[in-house]
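Hi there,

I know you've been waiting on this one. I reran it after we fixed the sequence typo, so this is the corrected version. Both the input and the resulting structure follow.
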Amino acid sequence: MVNERGMNRNDTRAPGGAPRLAILAASGSLPVEVATAAVAAGRNVLVIGLEGAVDERIKSFPHAMLKWGQFGRVFDLIDEHDAAEVVIVGAVDQRPDFRAIGVDADTALLLPKVNSLLVGGDDNVMRGLSRLIEDKGYRVVGAHQIAPKLVAEPGLTIGRAPSGAERRDAQLAMRAARLIGTLDAGQAAVVVKLRVVALEGAEGTDAMLQRVGELRRNGRAQWSGRMGVLAKCAKPQQDVRVDLPTIGPRTVAIVAEAGLAGIAIEPGRVMIADRAETDALVRRTGTFILADNGRDGVSEG
């Protein structure tokens, strides 16, 4: 593979034979976990972090920090590292408004393409970003390919075993999440007593869960004790190399605070961040995590 600068991307390999890796890192712990896994596997890594968002722990790896207005420098940094493969990982809370921030010359040249990427849902944006990177001659790989232990395996149960009623809620919630995913609207849904209480939109999973808690407090959705399930899955059409859905300790904490019983996630297509902390919090709060595709027992027709 030859990039637009004429460099042979298949020749840029670490001593162990794996191509050099650039990690485009936004917020959260996942970039740190992916970088850790890559180094442990003998990969030669450069982390390119979004300034003001990225976890400070990335500074323990070879790294560079960029602002949104310096986005055009990404490709120079990847080339300087001789990277053949690129991982995009981490959360971005809001899309940049390039009209309101200063941009450097490299970024200005890319602005027509970058602005076109920001039209549509998140899945459309991430697919477009992948195409932009691949058009430059690099290979986009998934975070789960670099750190496979982050992905929930089929049949996984963390914490207590869910009841039959909770499994039925999980199946319906997974079906609802999958349906809104086809519209590129969101990746999550909440069901309580076989009633769809909330669907994720542009606000994200955490804000949706906070909304569920408010619905319960104001009486719009009523139940006693811990009931109902949050389901999270990848969108059916999603490029799983980028923006794979993720849960972690904060998800568990908000689920418990909202009065929900547990979390259902799609096996093989949802990652669990900060696994040890997540597992401990699940048990401490009496919650459960179930890896189940939700297709059994609920008709898709």
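Quick highlight: The radius of gyration is 20 Å.

Best,
R. S.
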